[in-house]
Design a protein that fits this description.
- The structure is a homodimer of 485-residue chains.
- Chain A has 485 residues and is of the alpha+beta class.
- Chain A folds into three domains: 280 residues, BirA Bifunctional Protein, domain 2 (2-Layer Sandwich), CATH 3.30.930.10; 95 residues, Anticodon-binding domain (Rossmann fold); 71 residues, C-terminal domain of ProRS (Translation Initiation Factor IF3), CATH 3.30.110.
- Chain A has an eleven-stranded mixed beta sheet, with helices on both faces. In chain A, strands 16-15-17-18-19 form a five-stranded mixed beta sheet, with helices on both faces. Chain A has a three-stranded antiparallel beta sheet with strand order 4-6-5.
- In chain A, helix 3 packs antiparallel against helix 7.
- The longest helix of chain A has 27 residues.
- The radius of gyration of chain A is 25 Å and the shape is globular.
- Chain A starts with a helix and ends with a strand.
- In chain A, 49% of the residues are buried.
- Chains A and B meet through strand 1, strand 2, helix 3, strand 3 and strand 5 of A and strand 1, strand 2, helix 3, strand 3 and strand 5 of B.
- Strand 5 of chain A pairs antiparallel with strand 5 of chain B.
Chain lengths: 485, 485
């Protein structure tokens, strides 16, 4: 999509499109209306994070920092320009990015200085090779959060396919043995499950088809979220690199006997797509529905003002705000000179989990009226119980959103035991689970059924006895078929 | 300096050079030995943040996030590539960066995509122009933390002059009136004072000479730290842009009467130089001395092990570590299989503020021996008093470091009332304070005295009656003369 087309799609300031009917338009509009990003920055695939969106994303980032560091991963930072000679140490890797690569020039003669990092390997591994000398230096377990740059020629879509992929994290670990390497991959999967829980979205976890692995890798696990239209969004991958990259980048270590060995590696990465998954999963026709964990404001306090009682109501809402702050709840007091209706509308678009209202009636009754954004339920709570109730409501909302996501993800996936049934389900906008024997020719036959739909992986955990949908061979492997983002 | 020369300077693994005698070498060595940055990344002026250095820097960054947000500044993020047409909206600004600019190319024909951001104005202000329509949209008070890129042709020096300037923050605000704009500049000065206190370094605050202001700006305040050799390091600047940039970038607003007005702007920025100032100010011949506020570990616990009592000592140090953690003190238990001496050495290089030792004698006496990194004082503390004592010691160290910095900064500055005396003081490695009438010709005469030494600004607060050191005219303006970084 060109920048102009993207802008047209916004059709501001019209009312938000219905999410169910026009998901793609809804997504573009809500990013703008809820102040997540501004796409009017005049470069394709490069957008401005507005404050509300950025704070939401930073809550997620802070959580991955917490999870990674708690588990002993060390945060590092590598320069964003990668020397070409580093890139060329792994020609296969580099050729994969050459066309999609931004290069950086400078100086009087516009000499090439390097590549703008498409991903971290080529920046990091030459340094890893310097740092790792003996078995004592292993495991090396590190990560960084930084932008990645891809000169995408396909349609771009904010947070989903950007040319500057902002707030992208990469974990890169090196181990002495294959066993340690495989164990580490399991750790990364566990960290990612925590991130998915944090945004209250239920992912599908798959084994990559062998031919889609990084060149030389010995395994790859990918996370996908299934959107309401049955499409699958790749959303985080754990790549068991084995020794392929270590060989290219010369990551070697002396073992206890002084013998030289090659390191075993895992690399794992994801970023703002996690947020995109949450926005798309939880939002509704009124706007965003943010999980309390990532909401910049977990509660918005709205005074219902009448001239006569203005002073006492303002005193009460200010006190309420203070109570929230003291309880560690992120709160905003909306004291703008707007009608309550206007304020409700604004904060519904932005998806604030709880709205607390205080009007003259509530003061008489010594209560606060609270409205849950996710289901619109209105609850009157006595003031003295308020903080504990608010805390438990936030927890409840987080759980409700996750349960809803689990349920809906299951509903978005249908099982087919024939290509005909598979096609029907795809037509209905479902993601389809099939038995598949893992052979390339059967992959191709499945892919030929419906344009754009293909196998994106095999369920990492679930097995089911059956016959390959294409060749009828017995197999317990379950694969997923869908259009992908 | 070339990369090779830089590497040579490290002369690893020899012992750290004496800081007083060879400050520049000491600085290069300590960055490497204390795991702050690794300069072996093969691009001039681009270095890898190692974990210890990065965590130190992130503690500082977290604090500026805290200060800025507490004061209502909103964090944003703008793409790192700036469209050339945005740059060209302010030709004066752009021409200043053209030679030092990195440009980004991509696509089959290597088309120019934009400039790699040298600083934020050209990326931000075209968006500001879209966001600001009426007086209701003002003030706009925002900041971002992001890398800046300069193709420096001069010697580079890690954290001080880099080609990728990492963890750089920029505050950009827009106001309806000049008065608001000037008031905001004062706010920024106050925020910066808090950052300087946080790293326990005493800055010199100056008014920029008029001809060094940003083109069209109406004022500029700069922070400098004075290093032990009497040199001045520019370290943060508050630029009162007035309306100059707003005119170029079309930042206009309708006032209450519907009349169109031009916005008033302040932009303010700094980054890792603050850390460099702290490392240089506090370090000694044994290594770094980190202020507790930014130290990744505020305490390192070292068990003094003898085979017989090993178990009970380990139990005690582990409990101690837990106590620290529960008290919110950042702690590391060094349980490596190394001698205590080796551990002391390592953590002295890294500048951990407190070292806590427990040996068999201490267990008998129910005490912990604590050593302050900044002055080497050894204190035995009864175990039950330990946490409160440790907390108060950390506070004390922070204060001691700041006081020492205030005292030493004062000692590094001498006053001269003649050019001859000024020259003598400069020869002695002092920064020199002089009376200066603010005229350009007198500036030139001062500059001619000693190569490399020049007036870098006038004291922002202090006035003193006297006569211009060059023309003998009466003036109460006090200027600073030094070699600058």
């Amino acid at each position: 999509m060109t920048k102009e087309e993207e802008e047209e799609k916004l059709e501001l300031p019209k009312v938000l499109r219905a999410k169910k009917k026009e998901l793609s338009e809804w997504y573009h509009q809500i990013l703008f209306l809820a102040d997540i990003v501004d796409i009017r920055y005049n470069l394709k695939g490069m957008n401005v994070w507005k404050n509300y969106g950025y704070e939401t994303m930073l809550n997620l980032k802070r959580y991955w920092d917490y999870v990674f560091k708690k588990n002993g991963l060390k945060e590092l930072y590598f320069p964003q320009i990668v020397p070409i000679e580093y890139c060329e140490q792994n020609p296969e890797w580099w050729s994969g990015f050459k066309e999609q690569g931004f290069k950086v020039i400078a100086g009087e003669k516009d000499e090439i200085q390097g590549a703008l990092r498409p991903t971290g390997e080529a920046a990091m591994y030459p340094m890893y090779a310097m740092w790792i000398k003996t078995f004592r230096d292993l495991p090396l377990r590190a990560y960084e959060t930084v932008s990645s740059f891809r000169y995408e020629t396909r349609h771009t879509r904010p947070l989903i396919r950007d040319r500057e992929i902002t707030l992208w994290h990469e974990i890169h670990t090196v181990h002495a043995t294959k066993e340690d390497c495989l164990k580490e991959a399991q750790n990364h999967i566990e960290y990612y499950k925590q991130l998915w829980d944090f945004v209250a979205v239920h992912p599908v976890i798959v084994d990559k088809p062998g031919w889609e692995l990084f060149p030389g890798a010995i395994g790859g696990i990918e996370f996908y979220n299934i959107t309401p239209d049955g499409k699958a969004m790749e959303n985080g991958s754990v790549n068991i690199l084995g020794q392929a990259y270590a060989k290219k980048f010369n990551i070697k270590f002396k073992d206890k006997e002084g013998k030289e060995n090659i390191g075993w590696q895992v690399c794992t990465g994801n970023g703002a797509r996690l947020l995109a998954a949450a926005l798309i999963q939880h939002g509704d026709d009124k706007g965003l529905v943010l999980p309390p964990n990532i909401a910049p404001y977990q509660v918005v306090v709205v005074p219902i003002l009448f001239e006569k009682e203005k002073e006492i109501i303002m005193k009460n809402v200010e006190k309420l705000k203070e109570m929230f702050e003291n309880a560690g709840i992120r709160v905003l007091l909306d004291d703008r000179e707007e009608t309550p209706g206007r304020k409700f509308y604004d904060w519904e678009i932005k998806g604030v989990p709880l709205r607390a209202e205080i009007g003259p009636e509530d003061i008489k009754k010594n209560q606060v009226v609270i409205v849950k954004r996710n289901d619109g339920k209105k609850i009157a709570i006595k003031k003295e119980l308020f903080i504990s109730e608010a805390n438990s409501l936030l927890k409840t909302i987080q759980e409700e959103l996750l349960k809803k996501s689990q349920k809906e993800t299951a509903e978005r996936i249908g099982y087919a035991d024939s290509l005909k049934k598979m096609e029907e389900l795809l037509e209905k906008g479902k993601c389809v689970k099939i038995n598949w024997c893992k052979k390339g020719e059967c992959y191709d036959r499945v892919k030929a059924v419906k344009e754009g739909a293909e196998i994106f992986g095999s369920d990492y955990y679930e097995k089911k006895k059956g016959r390959c949908i294409a060749c009828d061979e017995e197999t317990d492997n379950l694969a997923y078929v869908a259009k992908t983002y």
